[in-house]
Amino acid sequence: MKSSVVELINAEMAAYLAAKAGDDRVKAWGALERAHILSHPYLPLHVANHWAMLKFAFETRDAKEAIGQMTRLALAPLGALTGRIPIGNTGRSNVSAFKTMPIPDDLRDAISRVTT
Fold first, then answer.
1. DSSP-derived secondary structure letter, 97
2. For every one of its 116 residues, what pLDDT tens digit does the chain have, with 9 covering 90 and above?
3. How far apart are the first and last CA of the chain?
4. With contact defined as beta carbons under 8 Å apart, do 49 and 12 qualify?
5. Using CA atoms, how far apart are residues 77 and 80, in angstroms rounded to an integer?
6. How many whole angstroms separate alpha carbon 89 and alpha carbon 110?
7. What share of the chain is helix, strand, coil (3-state, %, to 5)?
8. What angle do CA 45, 9, 52 make, to 5 degrees?
9. DSSP letter at 95?
């Protein structure tokens, strides 16, 4: 795993914590989603991201999201083992865990810079 990818994920997690501290749930979820897109290929980071999403769902008392995150925590290792990782998926319960989604342009650019 490239350390630069970890740095990108850490930056998104820092943005999540800042938004959470500022009580901005929309920005907090957005940062978690972006960290999820980046962490997808790396099982330990992917699972850690879903764990953070689960904790935030509990903190915000979002039962539907919490159930969705518990399901995704169970599915993440299976997806990694089978190679069925839906690229660009935001990891939230409001989208299918199997749906491929477009990667935001700025993340695509950042990923290409650290992987080339």
1. T
2. 456 889 999 999 999 999 999 999 999 999 999 999 999 888 999 999 999 999 999 999 999 999 999 999 998 888 888 878 889 999 999 999 889 999 999 999 888 887 64
3. 13
4. no
5. 5
6. 17
7. 70, 0, 30
8. 55
9. S
Sign of CA dihedral 83, 86, 89, 94: negative
Kindly give the interhelix angle for 3-21 and 25-39, rounded to the nearest 10 degrees: 170
- Report CA 114 to chain centroid distance, whole Å: 18
- Rounded distance between C-alpha atoms, residue 25 and residue 42, angstroms: 26
Give the predicted TM-score (pTM) of the model. 0.91
Q: Are 49 and 36 in contact (CB under 8 A)?
A: yes
Report residue 66 as tokens: 């919490």
Find tokens 């999820």 and name the residue: 36
Q: How far apart are CA 37 and CA 101, in angstroms?
A: 10
How many CB atoms neighbour CB 69 within 10 A? Answer: 24
Q: Where are the domains of the chain?
A: 3-115
